[in-house]
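Encode chain A's predicted structure.
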Amino acid sequence: MRDDEVVSVRGDDDDVFSHGFLCPKSQGLRQLHDDPDRLTRPLVRRDGELVEATWEEAFEAVDRGLSAALADGGRDAVAVYIGNPGAHSLGPTLYGAPLIKALGTKNVYTASTVDQMPKQVSSAFMFGGGLSVPVPDVDRTDHLLILGANPLVSNGSLLTAPDMRGRLRGIRERGGKVVVIDPRRSRTAKEASEHHFIRPGTDAHLLFAIANVLLAEGLADPGRLSEYAVGAAEIKTLARPFSAEAVAPVCGIEADEIRRLARELAAAERAAVYARIGTTTQRFGTLSSWLVDVLNYLTGNLDREGGAMFPLAAAGQRNSSGEGGSGKGFRMGRWGSRVSGRPEVFGELPVVGLAEEISTPGEGRVRALVTIAGNPFVSTPNSGALAAAADELDFMVSVDIYVNETTRHADVILPAPEPLAKAHYDTALYQLAVRSVANWSAPVIEPPEGQPAEWEVMLRLAAIAAGQGPEADIEAWDELVIRTLIGREVGLAGSPIAGRSPDEILEALGERRGPERLVDFMLRVGPFGDGFGADPDGVTLERLEANPHGLDFGAMRARIPEVLRTASGKIELAPEGIVADVPRLEAELGAHINGDMVLIGRRQLRSNNSWMHNLPALMKGKDRCTVQVNPVDADRLGLADGGHARVSSTSGELVAPVEVTDEIMPGVVSIPHGWGHDAPGVRLGVASEHAGVNSNVLAPGDVDEPSGNAVLNGIPVEVVAADREPSAVGA
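Encoded structure for chain A:
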């Protein structure tokens, strides 16, 4: 920095985790800081136009709009959507729950149900917790089988590990093997030892076939975990129909290759199976996610060095007792959506149902919408229907830094400070990290004068929702949040502060406020914390501040049985909530493959969903929003590289530039997710010049049955040559 000017952005070579590695997207920080389209003052709709207003005027408008919706329709008349950026900011991460509780609505939606929800559901059923997600121990494994993941672009997803290229190369350099299963020859596939094309949506078939081979040939050897698991016999029965010969015609991988994949996985000294968004955003997302960990169990690689292990985060996790796990297990469906009856999962409803909850008349109709750092009008299925439903809302308020495809519909937009003006601790992604690390990043610039912190905005919205008006005492709300956390912890057996006085703990936290106080508390009661005096060498926020390069507490270690929170205290290998969906998968064995085209998405190194397209540094170069198609299909369909194709589904159609490439398998087209910035009213100068098309108009709103997660991959489409400019239209 030079005063308030961002001079350069580079990695910290001394950082204990990244060692200086940066994703190219980090270079956007400088242009985000300077972006003239980034909002720094609230906008309020007056006479149909969004105009600048004071913070006082904006909160007064929110109070009028939310209060009217709640008075007319009750608590469920207000819906809230929290987007992906919320996981990367302490305001929504730590203060989202108090806002939701104050709203008192069952209509809670997040980006999770267009992303990773199947993995959280399968992990909760098997291990007892939605964040009890085993991640591959990439630094010590000898064999890594990757399905539907592109970690060289995502830098790990449900797998926090900087420099995945270096880590994957490390596997090969020590004599190991990396195998990628993907309908595209992605950047990760190009670094792998071998790559296999697979028909989109058939990963669960392949995984079951591998399990079948392991069990039929006596290669399964779970080792010490057998005493901590139940349901092994049922797995053998369930896998029986999925022989390599039965599955090969479905997934497109030859039976002999399937057997070889299984045998090599079993023979490796240390191996792990890892799958990501290509396997979760499909019709069998939960089954695929479950079978990944079934294979890790069957090969004896679950909870083992070099296998798939449970991370231990410094903040947000309990001290481990070393004793057997126990808990209440996992429940879902405590309520359902009003229109389609889709079950609740982890306190939220599938976002595919949001449009119908707004547009369908009747008691309980959603009349008002609160969005936090999200762009659901682009990022959710059948997005045309959601955009149309927006006209039926009585009120909408958004916390966002742009007027984008979603916030253009808002009555009030409350801007958050830019990242450089906010402190940060990665409470979310450290839960999935390959090492136990902690790093506190202090803000490097001051926010504009008068701009409240993001957490203060969240709490003021909560106070308004609770009926206390726009001038409520935010300090009192913040104290309520920390006292609630303290109260829970002192009542937990095994906690380092169990039985102690909440007032004593609050006093020990000193003068800190907001996220700083919450993070300090979470660190101090965490597995490496000082326990408020119990361990003088334990970590505190003050200690992190004194170590600006971070602290490293070591590699992952075995955590079974104490990590288990199932009702049985064991690994539930065949939970009913998952097993009930197997017949649907089995019914597709022998199904006729008719040669129709199917759609998948793709990750891009300089793009992150819909929210970084207004930064010139990340938008330069050739057009990236293209329809990728194999040369065989291009010849058959009359498509030319650089020409245009019309892609249509049951829910909509679009026209986009064609990119002919052998990196995509025959029978598949790929369009990246998160584009389509040409909507009227959007104030994104750079993004509008590179608008692209919104692939989600092609997603009809189908879901993975157990989790309610949206199906965004494996969508049947029709592809024909077109001669007009790019566009997208919902049905």
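The chain has 26 helices and 24 strands.
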